[in-house]
Amino acid sequence: MHSRRLRTALTLGILAVLYYVAGKLSLKLAFLHASASPVWPPAGIALAALLVVGYRAWPAIFVGAFLVNLTTAGTAFTSFGIATGNTLEALTGAWLVNRFAGGTGVFDRAQGVFKFALAVIVSTLVSPTLGVTSLAFAGFAPWANYGAIWLTWWLGDMSGDLIVAPLLVLWYSATTRRWDRAAIVEVVLLFLLLFALGQMVFGDWLPGSAKNYPIAFICGPIVVWTAFRFTPRETATGIFILSALAVWGTLHGHGPFVMENGNQSLVALQAATAILIVTAMALAAGMAERRRAEAAIEQQRATVEAANRTKDNFLAMLSHELRTPLTPVLAALDALKTESASPAQLETTLAMMRRNIELESQLIDDLLDLTRITKDKLQLQLESVDAHQAISNVVEMCAAEANAKKLQVRLDLRATAFRVQADPAKFQQIIWNLVKNAIKFTGENGAVTLSSANHLPNILTIAVTDTGIGIEPEIMERIFNPFEQGERSFQRRFGGLGLGLTISKSLAQAHGASLIAKSDGLGRGATFLLTIKTAALEESSAKPVPASAQTPPSKIRILLVDDHPDTCAALERLLTLRGHRVTTAHSMRTGMEAAGNVQFDLLISDVGLPDGNGMDLLRYLRSKFPTPGIAISGFGMDGDISKSLEAGFSAHLVKPVKLEKLEAAIARALNA
Asked: Which DSSP state fits 209?
C-alpha cells in the first residue's frame, strides 16, 4: 500500500513538473497577452493524463497551472482562477470523452474522433472564460481586448488538446500491430519525407516559402498516405512533427501563415492544423476499422472453413463408423444362409451380431446425448449412488472387450466415502466412456487401472489410468472437444466418433463434478480424473418391490402396431415366444380395425404411423377400454419422450428395443 501511494505521488509530481515546463515554454509565444498563448500543449498533456491515469491526477494539473501563472503575470488570485479553469477544462474534457466517446479507445473509430473533437471544443470553453475574466477583474487584461485574448486562449487550448492528447494517449496504449522490416522502413521514409516537405513549406529550403504562397497542401498526400497505411498513432505522430516544424517556421517568417504579427500567424496556423488533424485522425481511424473488419471477416472465413472441414471429417467418420458394425452382421447372415452352423458356431455368430448392433445403437445414442447437451436439455434424476458398484458394473460390461485385447483391468478402490448424489445411468455412463476410451487406446497386453480415493474430505476422486498411446500436449488442450481424437491416423486406426470424452465432460459438469486429463506425452499412457462431492449414506425406507411386480405376466393380449414390417414381425415373434397373444397392424387405421370391440391388455405402438400417430391410437383405445400403452420410436429426444408420456404411454422405448427393456416396460405398464 505504501509503495502504491509512493508511485502515485511520484507520478503526480512528474506530471506537475511536465505541465509547468511545457507551460513556461508555451508562454514564450504569448504575443497578445502574457497569459494567453495560441500554442498551449499543456492542455493536451492534462487531458491525456486524466484519460490515462484517471481523475485523481487533477491536483498535479492544478499545481502546475498555478505555478506557471504565478511566475508569469498577475497575482495569487488570478493564478488561482486560471489554474481552476485549466483543471476544470481538463476534467470536463476527460469526462465527456469517457462518457460519450469511449475513453482511451476514442481513436479506434472515425466516429470516436469526431466525438473527441466535439468534446474538446466544448471543454476548452471553460479555461479561457475563467482565466480571461479573472485577469480582467484584477486589471491585468483590458476589457476592450477580452474577445481577442479569449479567442487566442481558446484556440491554443483546443489545438493543444487535438494535437498533443491523441499523441500521448496512443503512444501509452498498447498496439496489436506487428511490425516487420518493410513496415518500419516505410514509416521512417514517410516521416523523413514529411520532415523534408515541412522544411520546404515552413523552412528556408525554397525561395518562395517566405512569400506566403499557399503550398502547405503538398504535405497533404504524405499525411493521407500515413493514415491509409498505418494506425492513428503514426498519423498523430506525423502531424505532431509537421506542427512543430510549422510553428518554428512561422515564428521565423516562413510559410503560408505568416501575417502582420506573430499572434495572428500562430492563430491561423493552429486553426489549420486543428482541421488537418481531425480529418487525418478520422481517416486513420476509419482505415483501422476497415482493417479490423477485414481481419474479423478473415477469422470468420477461417472458422467457417475449419467447421466445414470438421463437418466433412465428421460425416466421413460417421459413415465409416455406422457402416462398420453392419459389415460383419451382413456377412454372418449370408454365411448362415449358405451353410449350416453348429450350435457353438451359431451362438458365437449371434453374440457377434448382437455386439455390433449394440455398438451401432451406442453410436446413435452418443449423437443424441451430444444434441441434448448442446441444447441444454439434459435432465438428471439425482439419487444416492454407490460409485464403487457403478465401477464394478462398468468393468463387468467391458470385460469381454478387455479380454479380447488381453488387457489387465485392475481395481484399486480405496475410498471410504464412495456414495455420490448423481443420476445412476448418467454417472455410470461417465465411467463407461472413460473405461471404453482406455481400452480403445491401449494396445494388447496393456493395463487399465480404476482407482478411487478421498484426498479431501467429502470429495471422491475416481481415476482411470491406462498404458496406452498417451496424449500429446497440443492435443491435451482440445481432448474434450467434440470429434477430437488427435491425429487423423488415430481416427482411422481406432475408429469412433470422438464423442465419448465430450459427453463425459459435459455429464460431469452437469453433476457439479470436474473431469480432467493428464498424460506425460505420446506413448506414455493417460489418466482421467473424475472429482465429485460425496453424499451421506441414506437408509432407504421404501419397501422392496414384490417379484410379481417385476416380472410381466404371461399370456396377455397385445396389440402391436408398427409401420416397419420387419420390426413388427421380429417383435411379434419375441412376444409370442414369451407366451403372449399378439395381434399386429401396420397403420393407425388397421390398428383401430383390429381393436374392434376386443379389449387388449396392452398397446405397443410406434409413435409415427403413415396415417396418424400412436398417441391418437392410444386415445381411441382408451375411449373404449382402460388400455395401458408402451411407445416405441426411433426418435429419442427429451421432447419426444415427454410427448409420449403426456399422451398416456407408460414408457417410451427408443429403437432398437432390447428385450429386457421391453419386458421391464411391460411389467411396469401392467402393474401401474
From this structure: G
* Rounded distance between C-alpha atoms, residue 250 and residue 242, angstroms: 12
Rounded CA gap, 6 and 12, in Å? 10
At the fourth CATH level, which superfamily is domain 383-533? Histidine kinase-like ATPase, C-terminal domain (3.30.565.10)
Instruction: Please say whether the beta carbons of 44 and 168 come within 8 A.
Output: yes
Fold (topology level) of 550-671: Rossmann fold (3.40.50)
Q: Could you give the CA distance from residue 584 to residue 562 in angstroms, rounded to a whole number?
A: 8
What is the 3-class SS of 275-331, one letter each residue?
HHHHHHHHHHHHHHHHHHHHHHHHHHHHHHHHHHHHHHHHHHHHHHHHHCCHHHHHH
How many angstroms separate the first and last alpha carbons of the chain? 71
**Residue-level length of the chain:** 672
Look up the pTM and report it: 0.58
Largest CA distance in the chain: 124
Q: What is the pLDDT of residues 583-632, one digit of tens each?
A: 999 999 998 888 887 788 999 999 888 888 889 989 888 888 888 999 99
Other CB atoms within 10 A of residue 425 CB: 12
Residue of 584, 552, 551, 556 lying closest to 570 (CA atoms): 584
Q: Are strands 557-561 and 602-606 parallel, antiparallel or unpaired?
A: parallel
